[in-house]
Amino acid sequence: MSGRFRWPWVRAAPPPGSRGSDGPSRRRRPWPSRGLRRFSPSLSVGTLAAQVFLLQALIMLVLVAVAAAALLIQGRYDAERSARDRSLAAAEAFAHAPGTALALRSQDPTARLQMAAEQARKGSGVDFVSVLDAHGVRLTDSDPALIGTKAEGVGRAAAGETFTETFHGQPTDAVRAVVPVTDASRRVVGMVTAGIQYANIGAVLNRQLPLLLGAAAGTLVLATGGAALVSRRLLRQTHGLGPAEMTRMYEHHDAVLHAVREGVLIVGGDGRVLLANDEAHRLLELPEDADQRHVRELALGPGLTRLLDSGETASDEVIRAGDRLLAVNIRPTAPYGGAQGLVATFRDTTDLRALSGQAELARGRLSFLYEAGMRIGTTLDIRRTAEELSEMAVPRLADFATVELLDAVLRGEEPTSAVHEMRRTALCASQAGHPLQPVGEVIRFVMADTPMVAALRRGKAALVPDLHAAGDWRAQDPEGARQALAYGLHSLITVPLRARGVVLGMANFWRGGDAPRFEEEDVAVAEELVARAAVAIDNARRYSREHTMAVTLQRNLLPLGLPDQDALEIASRYLPAQSGVGGDWFDVIPLPGFRVALVVGDIVGHGMQAAVTMGRLRTAVLNFSSLDLAPDELLGHLDEMVSRLDTQTATADDDRVPLTGATLLYAIYDPVGGHCTLSRAGHLAPAVVDPEGRVTMPDLPLSPPLGVGGHPFEAGELELPEGSRLVLFTDGLIENRSRDIDEGLHLLCSTVAGADRTPEETCRALVEAMLPGHPSDDVALLVARTRLLAPACVATWDVPFDVTAVPRVRNEVSRRLADWQLEEAAFATELILSELLTNALRYGAPPVRVRLLLGRTLVCEVSDGSSTSPRLRRAATTDEGGRGLFLVSQFADMWGVRYASRGKVIWAEQTLDRVVEPDPTALFDLLDF
User: Fold this and answer.
1) For residue 78, which of 131, 381, 493, 579 sits 20 to 30 Å off, Cα-Cα?
2) Would you say residue 669 has pLDDT above 90?
3) What's this model's pTM, rounded to 2 decimal places?
4) Are 64 and 215 in contact (CB under 8 A)?
């Protein structure tokens, strides 16, 4: 009970037979009569007063409504009759006016009558005055647009009859009068109609309507107010209840008041007790004669006496009464209709307080563990997680906390069964100068009877509540134990760090000084805390292992070194993301004719799977580049391969990263003329820095990423002067959470601008200016500075399409080799040239061209206009030909075919620092025919 009572107290004696009629009921005070006001029944339909009020209100409402309706009908009738009279008077006055009949017989009656009719309308106060001819056609009207139109329903006036009517039709509904105009011979020569629009008749009534409704409302309010006064008087006299209801109310109230297990005390305005139920007598130990005694005379204790005597409001205020703790609620009775005083309720909370203390302690521990779950494991770093465990424990659980981990765990490896040697990884202390071993030292558990070894053996926490009384823990290090006791350490909990059933390390919690000893409840908290930390440490260990494996795989899949070539000076960078390696990669691929292919790509996703996917794509690019395809053709073959591979694995139940969506930029640089051909699949265009240091972003054709399909790939052309720098990169270089692509491109251009910078210096400047310490995305960067092959190292001959030209070209090639001081390579070169040139003249198409390129190797190229590809095969004994390419393969280090926009180029490459020795057996087999 809250102290607020819904039933009144009456002074009348209780009915015979009730609990208030016997002797023991003297504790129960009779009800004061003034309290009946608190129980005043509402004006409900069930009471007589309410029914009388409703009947009177209904009668008044009907009478007012009937009177208002009668007034409205009468007003409408009077307004319409007045409109008829005014309309008839205006029409007759104008029809009988001198000159009206004469004007109707004139040549232009409209001109003579229009103004007069308008003046008559204004003077009479009607809405319209119209003059009609004998046929009903309007000659004048207040609306000039109606002149010339025929009026409806005027036939009676044309026959000589004057009439008024309520007209409904065009142009508007109106009350009108129609009067015929006759000449001297009583013949109808026209008609005059005047009237008031029907809407304007209602407007007059509408102006009177507010006054009428206001009077009706006032009458209704006065009548209703009178009925309410009568009903209120009747309600106050009867209270809305009969004798049976009053008796039943008293019995129910008495039963509830004395049956509840809550003490109720009612105190009057003078501080005397008016009522105390049975529970209040028991809890407060009140005397039998407590009724009508002042609260200061009841020996309730100073706190409770002060509350009751002051009359202050209280809510669940705990007061000691003897050996009990009572929750007291006090409310005044005056605001609720009673006399001045208060109601106090009492609940025994002695047992509840003890339970509340335990619940508060449990809540604090749960809050501590929840906070630990949020703070431990915020990073995937093993050492930092161990530090978070120790920092969380001090000082809320312990004064000192240490964490030891196995060396294998610290390296990210799987823990072994050898758990008796660990390395201290974290230590947190509430005081300085402690005797505990510092971080980094090796902790050995070799004594079988120490708490640490026992905890490791059982896989559960070990509690040593009193280190002074326990002797087994000193066996491991007696001197260290003596120093710990001298420092003030007196209690220990040691818990093994276990995850997935494997021991990762050990956590020790110490208390010292004035802190209380550890108890069993503390052991449960420590075990839960360490269990959560163990999962976080194991996750960090597994992540560290996977990250190391992914980085190793990524490094091995990327180029281990840049290949030797003379066309470009190259520098590169690869930076893995903070969250792990990704799929960004680059490659430098030497091609025949001293050309070099530059590749930069980006794979969707991160982690080991992205690294493996990158390796698959890089291998495919290497394979396709061996075919010496143009960049757009290579990307077309690569796109087809990606689509096929992803289609084959689309239904596979694994977590492999798809190839679709990978971006790629493939560029081929030719040092002979400084020509660069580029094609890109969804990748960013490179930056070009000319020898003067000006930066441009070339507008190259852009195709969708690999695997999208349905779109052709296009190539762009660049002419790069010697000393130009080509900067290829992935989006991780220019874009991050705080910078968009446009800002990144602007920063990149400003960083690489400037002349006389080497590729290595350019890479270093870009990394320092554009990348934070731990980038959120991995970055691949490739910077190449162009070189040109000297014109003296290039020799070209256009060959007539005639086999007789072969000796002449061979002799010119020999002379050029002599100029290059390559007489030792002359024999092999002439043999290669003869075979290649003869094949082009016999089986190819014009034009035929021979080109020699001198660099670190000697390249001989023969091009023709045919797209037929030669094939190396072993000729049969009876074959007359088919041995030329076999000879070329024996005397050249490498040879191959590449296709141009028109025709093909067959090339052969020889190393200059050694002479190729063909296989004699193969040559004898070749000549044995």
Assistant:
1) 131
2) yes
3) 0.52
4) no
